[in-house]
Amino acid sequence: MTMIMAEPAERTDSDAAFSELEEKELVTNARHGNLKAYDELVRRYQERIYATIYHMTANHEDANDLAQESFVKAFQALKSFKGGSSFYTWLYRIAVNKTINFLKQRKNRQHMSLNDLDFNVEHNPDLVALISDKTPRREAGLTELQEKLNGALLKLSESHRMAVVLHDVQGLSHEEIAKIMHCNIGTVRSRLFYARQQLQALLADYVKAT
Amino acid sequence: MSENENDFETLRRLLALKRHEVPPPGYFENFSSQVIARIQAGETGSESVSGVSWLLRLLQAFETRPAYPVAFASGLCMLLLFGIVSVEQNPEMGSAWPTPNGSYVADVSGLAPNASQQFGNISNTNPPVGLPASSSLFDNNPPANPYFQQVSLENAN
Which of A26, A43, B25, B107 could join B95 via S-S bond, C-beta 3.0 to 4.6 A? Predict the structure, then answer.
């Protein structure tokens, strides 16, 4: 893991000015080497890019490294960005390709390093129901459920897992996923269907009960 | 497809758990500055690491694909076997064979006929002497050699 220590971010007036700029203007400025403009672009998409990679790898450290590398690579490749798609789709594509390559390399040594669940999870009625008295696995806590869910996701192929993560977890549309994954919408739908089928079989104890 | 969507409704609710997995508090506060720091470091340091990157990639390939180190080791073994077989079939290639007393004798039969004479002229100040051919190695009557001197040890004690 690459760790570069950076000073805690302090936002100046010029940074605030950048935050009001349109994405296109920020991209144009960043293409000319303006790091403040690029910093603003990173801030806009860091959470979504990190989350996608984290849900694919089930490992915080790997996700941190890959997310940073994706942004660095995107900056270096900005000159080749023609604007045919949105910057957001283009950036996603870089992150997705990087993650899939990484996962193929580490295929035989998958190690989970899961993030903690936030406080709101206990107020989510659907999830509470999954571990309530109605289920045969009522002894299972949310943490155990989290581990089972991540373990099941890791058993899917990279392309199937990506389809589920982007659609069912991140909430992207079929069209957006097709653009990001460089395939047609039919392929996205079919990947989603088979991925869900496999997940349902792997998580039968939890899914059948409700 | 909408029927399938309904079939997977419970699964989708279960997958919602993933949205509650969050990185440590304050994680995103420094994220962008770390990215910018890496970009700035990369602009100055990319050239120095490019030399070792191919080696790292090779090592990674060896780690991730067991077929690569096996193929590499097989190749080395084949090369070694080829070397041994070709030396055995063609002793002239590298003939330095041990004699019974442990010293090594180099086979110079392949050299030019006058090579030994040429080397003799270089390393020896004495004039070259042509010895007459002997009929046997244990000839009782050795040929007349100007440097040969018969020594008797009988009266030594």
Answer: B107
Contact criterion met (CB below 8 Å) for A81 and A169:
no
Q: Which residues of A touch B1 (CB under 8 A)?
A: 189, 193
Q: Which of A171, A207, A167 is nearest to A189 (CA)?
A: A167
d(CA A117, CA B20): 5
Q: What whole-number distance in Å separates Cα of residue A72 and Cα of residue B42?
A: 9
- For residues A61 and A108, state if they share a domain: yes
Mean pLDDT of chain B: 69
**Are residues A104 and A73 both part of a single domain?**
yes
DSSP code of residue B102: S
Structure tokens at A70: 């994706």
The residue among A190 and A80 whose pLDDT is bigger is A190
Give the structural domain span for A83. Answer: 16-115
Residue A2 pLDDT > 50: no
pLDDT value at position B104?
Answer: 53
- What's the CATH number where A50 sits? 1.10.1740.10
Q: Write down the mean pLDDT value for chain A.
A: 85
A87 occurs within a structural domain: yes
Higher pLDDT, A133 or B18: B18
Q: Do B33 and A39 touch (CB under 8 A)?
A: yes
> How many residues does the structure list for chain B?
157
**Predicted local confidence at residue B106, as pLDDT:** 52
Searching chain A, which residue's CA lies closest to the CA of residue B12? A168
Residue A37 lies in a domain: yes
Distance, CA of B58 to CA of B56 (rounded, Å): 5
| Domain count across chain A | 2
The Cα A94–Cα A101 span in angstroms is 11
The Cα diameter of chain B in Å comes to 122
